[in-house]
């Protein structure tokens, strides 16, 4: 079973690249972020033509997440995170979608960026991470085999960025962001890519600006976190780097983990 994540940066603009990747790599489950379309505009029929069933949580012009499954219909279990801060009215962002497939629970995550900081966007990011951790703890307590995958917008350590100095003032690698991510790992979740690439140097994002792709100035912000039940089944994990270099590509590249059946 291969579970993959891909921040597609606009599903309509990248549809040919997305279908190309699905056909060439055939993940069992594919979680998409930044679909950037309202629900009625999601191109579900395009995926049905190649054997994928989809659920999605859209939003006009930005955000949006979707889960595709090969040959089976994802059974939705949650849309949006539990709201720990109802006074903030923060559930209008389409950032979390969760479903069961093939005996596995998969949560698709598009975590807030948090820039500029300091300010309300960074505070929102930290609150969202607190909500995610609380929900993850609930899944843990139920002993549900779970993968929480997607664009976390967190660079976990200095080894996960081409230049720590260049990104030092960015919300993606502030101590508060890193600490929130580290607390999830300390709760017992396994970072699949990091576990199999402990020396770092693996990027999942290259900016469109300043020749970042050509100079390999990237960083790792797309993560696959596994519960103990799935971590024990992990056989491989990786990054489909070449797709970042194709014409009209996303600025992210797909990440994936292989699990024993």
UniProtKB/TrEMBL annotation:
<keyword id="KW-0378">Hydrolase</keyword>
<feature type="binding site">
    <location>
        <position position="251"/>
    </location>
    <ligand>
        <name>Mg(2+)</name>
    </ligand>
</feature>
<feature type="site" description="Interaction with DNA substrate">
    <location>
        <position position="252"/>
    </location>
</feature>
<dbReference type="InterPro" id="IPR037493">
    <property type="entry name" value="ExoIII-like"/>
</dbReference>
<feature type="active site" description="Proton donor/acceptor">
    <location>
        <position position="151"/>
    </location>
</feature>
<feature type="binding site">
    <location>
        <position position="7"/>
    </location>
    <ligand>
        <name>Mg(2+)</name>
    </ligand>
</feature>
<keyword id="KW-0460">Magnesium</keyword>
<feature type="binding site">
    <location>
        <position position="153"/>
    </location>
    <ligand>
        <name>Mg(2+)</name>
    </ligand>
</feature>
<feature type="site" description="Important for catalytic activity">
    <location>
        <position position="222"/>
    </location>
</feature>
<dbReference type="InterPro" id="IPR004808">
    <property type="entry name" value="AP_endonuc_1"/>
</dbReference>
<dbReference type="InterPro" id="IPR005135">
    <property type="entry name" value="Endo/exonuclease/phosphatase"/>
</dbReference>
<dbReference type="InterPro" id="IPR036691">
    <property type="entry name" value="Endo/exonu/phosph_ase_sf"/>
</dbReference>
<comment type="similarity">
    <text>Belongs to the DNA repair enzymes AP/ExoA family.</text>
</comment>
<dbReference type="GO" id="GO:0008311">
    <property type="term" value="F:double-stranded DNA 3'-5' DNA exonuclease activity"/>
</dbReference>
<feature type="active site">
    <location>
        <position position="110"/>
    </location>
</feature>
<dbReference type="GO" id="GO:0046872">
    <property type="term" value="F:metal ion binding"/>
</dbReference>
<feature type="site" description="Transition state stabilizer">
    <location>
        <position position="153"/>
    </location>
</feature>
<keyword id="KW-0479">Metal-binding</keyword>
<dbReference type="GO" id="GO:0006281">
    <property type="term" value="P:DNA repair"/>
</dbReference>
<feature type="domain" description="Endonuclease/exonuclease/phosphatase">
    <location>
        <begin position="4"/>
        <end position="252"/>
    </location>
</feature>
<keyword id="KW-0464">Manganese</keyword>
<protein>
    <submittedName>
        <fullName>Exodeoxyribonuclease III</fullName>
        <ecNumber>3.1.11.2</ecNumber>
    </submittedName>
</protein>
<dbReference type="Pfam" id="PF03372">
    <property type="entry name" value="Exo_endo_phos"/>
</dbReference>
<feature type="binding site">
    <location>
        <position position="252"/>
    </location>
    <ligand>
        <name>Mg(2+)</name>
    </ligand>
</feature>
<feature type="active site" description="Proton acceptor">
    <location>
        <position position="252"/>
    </location>
</feature>
<feature type="binding site">
    <location>
        <position position="151"/>
    </location>
    <ligand>
        <name>Mg(2+)</name>
    </ligand>
</feature>
<feature type="binding site">
    <location>
        <position position="34"/>
    </location>
    <ligand>
        <name>Mg(2+)</name>
    </ligand>
</feature>
